[in-house]
Amino acid sequence: MLAAFDEENKWPDKKVIRQTQLLAREFPLLELPCLAIAAIHAMRNDESVTDGELWMTQLWEKRKELFENYIADKYFSRMYPQVQLTRGISSPYPFNLTALGLLYSEVLQGTGKVKEAKEVVKSLTPTPFTAISLAELNIDLKLYDEAISATEDIEVESDTSGMLQIFRGITFTLQGFHDAAVEVFKTVIAKRSLSEEVLNRALVERAKCYQAMGKKAMAIKDLEKILAREGDYPEIKELISEVGKT
């Protein structure tokens, strides 16, 4: 079963999907665990993503049955599907109910079902990672007051708390409270112990805030800091060009 999961990507996704389907046909009791593994690999493959979305829905509907399966109980704690919640933050969980819920939430967001995605995350046991997911969903739903209240009184001590503060700053920017947003981003950027990905995200979002304030030079300065230390940061040159045109 662990070989079928293939966390190190030794097998092509299509091969994993095919092998798990064959295994499920031969051993019907393995149907749901095999479907879970197939779904994770389908979500990684553009050609199979539609199947993956369907399978994730089926898994969520049968989640109680899935995690009561003895195979899931035996092996899933040793499987770590990567769930990118937002740029700079990924879920650290083994394949448990929280990991499945976060995966399914990402599927729903990708199909435009943001309200449904929020309901899924709200049903999970609260953790810093579910809080990050909820913060982003509240912003997508323009529920700014909820996003602000959920990020109050948070000390920046880790990547997760730093990202929650970044979302707080994004919310202030969207509300037009630019000075408040800049102060929030400042507290994150000052915490040098955070990962480079989180610090860069804070710089990007502060640059967008400066752009909204009409402070083009300061926005470009923040973006060029990222370019200097991570030249392949996604879309950084495009962002600099965009700010320069405003």
From TrEMBL:
Gene3D superfamilies in UniProt: Tetratricopeptide repeat domain (1.25.40.10)
Protein name in UniProt: Unannotated protein
Native species: freshwater metagenome
Source species taxonomy: unclassified sequences, metagenomes, ecological metagenomes
